[in-house]
Amino acid sequence: MPTYRAPLRDFDFVLRDFLKIDTLRHLPGFEEVTPDLIAAVLEGGGKLCEDVLFPANAPGDAKGCTYANGTVTTPTGYKDAHRAFVAGGWNGLSFAPEYGGQGLPRVLAECFGEMSMSANLAYTTYPGLAAGAAEAISKHGSPEQKATYMPKLVAGEWGGTMNLTEPHCGTDLGLIRTKAEPQADGSYRITGTKIFISAGEHDLTANIIHLVLARIVGAPAGTRGISLFIVPKFLLDADGTPGRRNGVRCGSIEHKMGIKGSATCVMNYEDATGYLLGEKHKGMRAMFTMMNSARLAVGVQGLALSEIAYQNAAHYAKERRQGRALKGAAEPDHAADPIIVHPDVRRMLLTMRAFNEGARALAAWVGLNLDLAHKHPDPRARRDADDLVALLTPVIKAYFTDFGYECVNTGQQCFGGSGYIVETGMEQFVRDARISQIYEGANGIQALDLVGRKLPQGMGRLLRQFFHPVDRFIQANANDPALADYVRPLAKSFARLQQATAWIGEQGLRDPNQAGAAASDYLKLFALVAMAYIWAQMAEVANEKLANGADDKRFYQAKLATARFFMERLLPETSSLLSKLTSGAGNLMALDAADF
Amino acid sequence: MPTYRAPLRDFDFVLRDFLKIDTLRHLPGFEEVTPDLIAAVLEGGGKLCEDVLFPANAPGDAKGCTYANGTVTTPTGYKDAHRAFVAGGWNGLSFAPEYGGQGLPRVLAECFGEMSMSANLAYTTYPGLAAGAAEAISKHGSPEQKATYMPKLVAGEWGGTMNLTEPHCGTDLGLIRTKAEPQADGSYRITGTKIFISAGEHDLTANIIHLVLARIVGAPAGTRGISLFIVPKFLLDADGTPGRRNGVRCGSIEHKMGIKGSATCVMNYEDATGYLLGEKHKGMRAMFTMMNSARLAVGVQGLALSEIAYQNAAHYAKERRQGRALKGAAEPDHAADPIIVHPDVRRMLLTMRAFNEGARALAAWVGLNLDLAHKHPDPRARRDADDLVALLTPVIKAYFTDFGYECVNTGQQCFGGSGYIVETGMEQFVRDARISQIYEGANGIQALDLVGRKLPQGMGRLLRQFFHPVDRFIQANANDPALADYVRPLAKSFARLQQATAWIGEQGLRDPNQAGAAASDYLKLFALVAMAYIWAQMAEVANEKLANGADDKRFYQAKLATARFFMERLLPETSSLLSKLTSGAGNLMALDAADF
Question: What is the ipTM score, two decimals?
Answer without folding.
Answer: 0.97
